[in-house]
Specification:
The chain is mostly helical. The protein is built from 12 helices and no strands. This is Prenyltransferase.
């Protein structure tokens, strides 16, 4: 049991699970726009996410020469492998897709790397975190797969991009509720500003446009509407039961599993 827990912790803290969520959203885009599976795109999304998240979380441990644990050493090795794989997959993508990827992963870098003299990085700019992360996720999982195949940026694409942005924003707000006690007050997260109760109400409110955007597509898929209802209910429940007292696994595993759960629902519905 101890060995299994260590493996799970390495999987979660090594950002492999969040990378799976990003990959799930890429596959959702493939399904929604009837795209064939693209290994370089999927590989870049997974490996790029894993490396960038680990870089954001752990670069300060090395920069400030903190104690490096055995688990962190393993994560570091896996992150280096992920980086190399991401570069290989990146070089296999079309030039326009590469430029798109540079834009969104560049924003991720700005989130971590110091850019202003008095502020360590963009993460410390009040309130910008949620929008920046949601923008990057929406761009990588929606726009990049479509740009790679030369799909036009039509209304349906904009709707799906907006829907994806809202979903990620909602999930981040759940994270911020759980992390309320640990977050630096200077971050000015949404729960810090408006409180936990109002953040939950905001999340429940955001689920409404997330669902309703589906009705504005050029072709409304009834099965997708049913799938999204289940997703909305599940996300609403995770929001309602989120508290700062919750265990970290609540977000690190369960909340981050929501995109994977969404993909699973779609696969199940398409086989009925």
């Amino acid at each position: 049991m101890i060995a299994l827990k260590r493996m799970l912790d390495t999987y979660l803290h090594g950002s492999m699970h969040v990378a799976m969520s990003v990959l799930a959203l890429v596959l959702m885009t493939n399904h929604m726009f009837r795209l064939e599976f693209n290994l370089p795109m999927a590989g870049f999304a997974y490996c790029g996410t894993m490396f960038s998240y680990n870089f954001m979380k752990y670069e300060s441990w090395y920069r400030f020469k903190r104690k490096i644990t055995p688990r962190l050493k393993i994560i570091t090795v896996l992150s280096v492998v992920a980086f190399i794989a991401a570069v290989v997959f990146f070089l296999m993508l079309k030039r326009v897709t590469q430029i798109t990827g540079i834009i969104f992963f560049g924003l991720t870098a700005l989130y971590t790397i110091p850019v202003f003299p008095k502020r360590p990085n963009l993460r410390n700019l009040s309130g910008i975190k949620v929008y920046l992360v949601a923008l990057c996720w929406a761009g990588v999982t929606t726009l990049m797969p479509l740009v790679e195949v030369g799909h036009e940026i039509v209304t349906d694409v904009i709707l799906k991009f907006s829907q994806r942005f809202l979903l990620v924003l909602i999930l981040i707000l759940i994270f911020e509720i759980i992390d309320l006690r640990e977050d630096d007050p200077m971050l000015r997260t949404v729960p810090q500003i408006i409180g936990v109760k109002m953040t939950k109400l905001l999340n429940l409110f955001l689920l409404v446009p997330f669902y309703c955007l589906e009705f504005f597509k050029s072709t409304v898929d009834t099965m997708q509407l049913l799938v999204n209802i289940v997703l909305v209910v599940a996300t609403a429940l995770f929001t309602i039961f989120a508290t700062p007292e919750r265990n970290k696994y609540y977000t690190l595993f369960w909340v981050e599993s929501i995109p994977i759960f969404w993909l699973g629902l779609v696969v199940l519905a398409s086989n009925l």
